[in-house]
Amino acid sequence: MVRFSQVGLRYPDPTRGAAGERDTLRDLSFFLPQGSFTWLTGPSGAGKTSLLRLMQLALRPTRGEVEVLGVPLSRAKRADLPKLRRRIGAVFQEFRLLPYLTAFDNVALPLRLAGRAEASLRPDVAEMLRWVGLEGRADALPQQLSGGEQQRVAIARAVVTRPALLVADEPTGNLDAVQARRLIVLLAEMNRLGATVVVATHSHELIAQHPGHVMHLEGGRIVSLTPWPHAPAGEAAPESPDPAPAETAWEPAGAAGLLPEGFALDLSAPEPEAGWVEEVPPSEEAEEDAASLPPEEHHIPPAPSRPAGRSIWPSARVTRPYPEADHG
Ligand SMILES: Nc1ncnc2c1ncn2[C@@H]1O[C@H](COP(=O)(O)OP(=O)(O)OP(=O)(O)O)[C@@H](O)[C@H]1O
Questions:
Q1: What are phi and psi of 291, to 5 degrees?
Q2: Is the Cβ atom of 46 under 6 angstroms away from ligand 1?
Q3: What is the pTM of this model?
Q4: Which domains, and CATH codes, for the chain?
């Protein structure tokens, strides 16, 4: 789960000093239960990436408390952060692939850093590459891949660790409609089996493909956190969206379309270390903000219960991927 309590973020301004600094995020208070799916929307510069970086523990808040996967950041020892970060998968707009490693090795990296045996990680990595449609490009270096292909490698790398929390910043930005659809199915499957998923997007089309909650940011503040689809007060939410159109419906490659048995989310186990996490800068002094509004607590209901320990991949053609989604 993720809990923010009166969180503010102010980036230092090395060119103008304290006088030039301003709050990027203000008074964010919300709670996302484990297993929830949240879309993060808002105009450019609203603070979506900054919010995701706080959730990823790549930044510390200037004020307030960030609690991720049950750990309040203010009380976590610096030495404990890498372990916590291992349970968080992140896909950012810049892919951060290592240029001298092949697609396969980039995806395998977090598993190798965690000490996974080569024989056990290879099937998982190969299957992830197959899932994102890159089974034939395993030996390619990032520079030999298109932007969309690099993005898919980054997605595979974020997901192969089976994170309990997955944050993605415009993850479909370089993907065509079919690949975008496959990614949403992937995120939905991870979410269905227990991962908390938060995805920043400008695409209403994408949001329409998978129900969740929509957190809308403007000017660094939460303007709304609402169930999707939106329903006027007092009216029932409309039915879930129709299945994907035929041309974008996902069908797993290969006979069964399954990842290896055992490739299931284990939300309690320590996860492999992600090798691309950033340093967390030292916390800055909290400052009083006289202009700030009273904090508003945003809360979304828990996700529906789900079976534990099953393979994360659907065993058959997905014609109606989100049958048990809760629109309430
Ligand atoms: N490292 C940084 N140092 C200083 N200011 C920053 C830094 N990163 C972001 N900002 C500022 O914080 C504000 C919010 O940026 P952020 O990238 O979080 O917005 P966003 O909603 O993700 O935008 P977009 O949709 O364009 O990606 C912007 O005004 C940006 O200039």
A1: -85, -5
A2: yes
A3: 0.72
A4: 2-10+32-232 (3.40.50.300)
